[in-house]
């Protein structure tokens, strides 16, 4: 689907084009939508695949509080 049609019909481009969407609340919560999977996970680093690149999240006491095929929610102290 072309970007023009997406704009014309006011469709959510991140979902239609399968783009990643990242949201944060302060430095303790991060939500990543439209991911392609988890690559690496420990208390200090989490690495996530997207369509075009890897997303690296660093911090302390990191943990994944939600994980499904669409959303990863990370909590902890995100740097």
Strand content: over 45%
- Helix run count: 2
Strand order within the widest sheet?
1-2-6-5-4-3
Gyration radius from CA atoms, angstroms: 14 Å
Uncertain segments: none
Order of helices and strands: HHEEEEEE
Structural class: mainly beta
Q: What is the end-to-end distance?
A: 37 Å
For the secondary structure, the number of strands is 6
Largest sheet: 6 strands, antiparallel
Measured as a percent range, the helix fraction is 10-25%
Average pLDDT reading:
85
Using the alpha-carbon principal axes, give the shape.
Answer: globular
Structure write-up:
The protein has helices at 3-8, 13-16; strands at 21-25, 29-33, 37-41, 45-49, 54-67, 71-78. It has 79 residues and is mainly beta. A 6-stranded antiparallel sheet has the order 1-2-6-5-4-3, with no helix packed on it.
């Amino acid at each position: 689907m072309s970007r023009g049609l997406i704009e014309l019909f006011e469709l959510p481009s991140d979902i239609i084009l399968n783009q990643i969407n990242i949201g944060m609340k302060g430095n303790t919560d991060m939500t990543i939508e439209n991911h392609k999977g988890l690559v690496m996970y420990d208390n200090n680093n989490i690495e996530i695949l997207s369509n075009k690149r890897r997303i690296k999240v660093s911090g302390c006491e990191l943990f994944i509080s939600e994980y499904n095929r669409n959303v990863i929610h990370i909590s902890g102290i995100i740097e």
